[in-house]
Batch of 2 targets.
Target 1
Amino acid sequence: MPVQKGAEIAPAKGKLGVLLVGLGAVSTTFIAGVEAIKKGLAEPIGSLTQMGTVRLGRRTDNRVPAIKDFVPLAKLEDLVFGAWDIFPDSAFEAATHAGVLEKELLTKLRKPLQKIKPMKAVFDQSYVKRLTGTNVKKGKNKLQLARQLIDEIADFKRKNRCDRLVMIWAASTEIFMKPHAVHRDLKSFEQAMRDNHKAIPPSMIYAYAALKSGVPFANGAPNLTVDVPAMMDLANQQGLAVCGKDFKTGQTLMKTIIAPGLKSRMLGLDGWYSTNILGNRDGEVLDDPESFKTKEESKLSVLEYILQPDVYPQLYKDFSHVVRINYYPPRGDNKEGWDNIDIFGWLGYKMQIKIDFLCRDSILAAPIVLDLALFLDLAQRTGMKGVQEWLSFYFKSPMTAPGLYPEHDIFIQLMKLKNTLRHLRGEDLITHLGLEYYD
Ligand SMILES: NC(=O)c1ccc[n+]([C@@H]2O[C@H](COP(=O)([O-])OP(=O)(O)OC[C@H]3O[C@@H](n4cnc5c(N)ncnc54)[C@H](O)[C@@H]3O)[C@@H](O)[C@H]2O)c1
């Protein structure tokens, strides 16, 4: 466990600034959602911090507090939003453009949304081929760009009288990159920034600026970003919590719900074919093969880890797993995902499962952004630093401490999250053994 059982947690007093990199579909759906909930226009559906509970003690004890009453979380009224984007549109204009939420609702939220104007982005088209924008910073090198961000972060905190900040990457997926020698430690990382080295994409410049400013960081896209030794050293040195990568929504969410069920009944898998159509800007960016490669890697690893072909070769050795994303503008944010799952049962008899998920990407992602902002802030106030594996629940490709494999099974992830909360509050962990059977 990262901290002592029942450790002291600093209170969530004052304002929490949520700094979003990217003010697109996900970010605006998140901000507009929080404003709508604050006005009593909607319920926070899909958010564990707002609607979830945690069972404590024996089942007969009947102690099931709401998570937000059990641990001290920032209140929605205390959130302040800031963002960077390569387009100068306010959150109102960006939300209207994204087309996720209905005009009628957005009109009611016009005032708070119009106030949020994005700061100039650190952007370089070589890392996101399909985008060009004008709201972009200039600087002599990457370290200088990071310094501009650091100044802006301090300014934002002062002007908005924030007590604490968190930063979440909800900007476009960058091209596929592997860890490079310059990422190995902070010294070579900073030198590479001075040298404008190509192994330092914009997302790393934001993460560096956040960590230098004492701000915990979550990565909602599959980019490497903080998942390199230099950034982890910086996070540990600064005592900061980080987590990532890639919000778990849509097809991968379904995969991590269904695959553990198949495995629990020892049903075999011949293949899993996933394809989907998506028409938002994210879909357009992912239409570029180099950005798609980053996403594909993130989506593919899930089944291997859940099904453990090494442990169950008769059931899962050599299954095929194919993932396709097709950019199809008419659908906008309303993705349609099809899965064809070829399974086998008793005596090897074959069966098929077909899923047609008419999902709304940003509707699934927005509550994740809220929960991550609140839990990351909780981790920070508790003194938990480094990778927050208990937040794997929210990610397609969870970051882990070096040498560990990621846990993808959503039920194990949820148990780990809730047990972490129990541990923080000095309660017994629930393993579904001990207490109710043997006590
Ligand atoms: N919607 C989901 O369900 C979901 C799930 C997992 C991951 N994601 C990831 O979250 C991210 C956001 O998704 P979205 O649907 O909001 O996409 P979007 O295209 O609507 O928004 C992304 C925004 O980021 C901006 N941007 C790009 N590079 C930037 C930079 N360097 N600095 C500042 N802004 C920058 C773009 O201009 C755009 O407005 C994407 O990377 C996506 O892959 C989304």
Note: The longest helix spans residues 361-382.
Target 2
Amino acid sequence: MARPEGLYCAAGDFYIDPWRPVERAVITHAHSDHARFGHRHYLASRPGANVLLSRLPGIALQTLAYGERLAIGGTVVSLHPAGHVLGSAQVRIEHAGRVWVASGDYKLDPDPTCDAFEPVRCETFITESTFGLPIYRWDPPQNVFDGIDSWWRHNAAEGRASVLFCYSFGKAQRVLASVDAGIGPIFCHGAVEPLNRAYRDAGVPLPPVRLVSEIERKDKAMFRQALIVAPPSAQGSAWLKRFGDYSDAFASGWMRLRGARRRRGVDRGFVLSDHADWPSLQSAIQATEAGRVIVTHGSVEPMVRWLREQGLEAGAFETQYGDDTVEADAAVADQTASAQDSDVASHAPAEQADERIDRIDRIDQPETRDESIPGANTS
Ligand SMILES: [Zn+2]
Ligand SMILES: [Zn+2]
């Protein structure tokens, strides 16, 4: 059930992705709106341990392999792949013969950097709904990466750098693992590198990637054939000057919205998301065979309405899970902490602009108010 601290399981006395400090937290994945500092005990998936510890160093972390069962209070808890980012997990809770599953964030599309989403049968399914509107339908990822490759190839042929903005954890590694590394050298921003390292340490193969800051500032020629992967917060910053002539692009599910593309002001928008699109949300929910579905974040109302039309019991929990904005902030924090780049200070205005844009983008979507539906909070 929903408490001010987060989603709470009374039978096991633990929280899932709490946003206020608690005694015992089960973490679905290391994105900063789901994994926060301040809890006494953390439980998360073993494949996600590297990334989680790189973002929250020093936490008291216990890990479970996917599918491994652990008794907590009167419950049995296990974690199952969510296909969202490395280590992302759905939380299965069994209590008195009843099964609940909390999805965290998830996607069904193939992703070489993490385990595929596993449908888990349950009576009650708690689902995200970030892109829970019929307008959100993703092309097959291979088509999107072909598009990124041809944009990069074209720029390289013209002697122009290709700067791709995407979130530093998850999206960046998925892009790195999926583009054609034979087109030219690949560089990344200082905020992306610690995540690359955590992925490699976890055994995820990524192509060789160099840090932009290793290259002398006047050495612009180094970047003419290159793909440069940078967080959205780098957009509009002085950091970009070193590339000379460049084309820029943004990879995000929000690029599906024309207004978002326009306001981003980039040359290209690639529609690439680590969340399930509308058809995938529906098929994932159906695969659980749940009779009751609770929607957490994103387009809550349209999803609840659709679920009720399917004859399911449906409601909403109000949560503080956000979307990409928080991620962009985290990227800046990471970068400031690592201080690998001398342009850190100049990123602050870009970051603010970023937040503003993300807020405007949300207004673009009809019917996305986060509204709790009374009567749903029964657990
Ligand atoms: Zn996430
Ligand atoms: Zn989320």
Note: The pocket of zinc ion (ligand 1) is lined by residues 29, 31, 34, 84, 105 (CB under 6 Å).
